[in-house]
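Predict the 3D structure for this chain.
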Amino acid sequence: MFLVIRERSYSTLDDKNYQIEMYTKEYNLALDFARCLRKEAEEKQEDNLTFAVVKYPDTADHFIGETENDLRTNDINW
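Done. Predicted structure below.
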């Protein structure tokens, strides 16, 4: 199973908020959805949002604290 996770960074706090936006068994579907969310955030000029597609349960337990490259966010934040 793949999760699409939204990360919101707060500029006034050194804190981040994570929210699961979608889950599916199809990687390409999750990736397309995350790309759409990224484009929508760019149109709304929400620079504090990033999205990641992670495989559950392999990386979900280690999501917090990992780098964007480890979470494959480069696939969607291009």
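Helices lie at 27-43.
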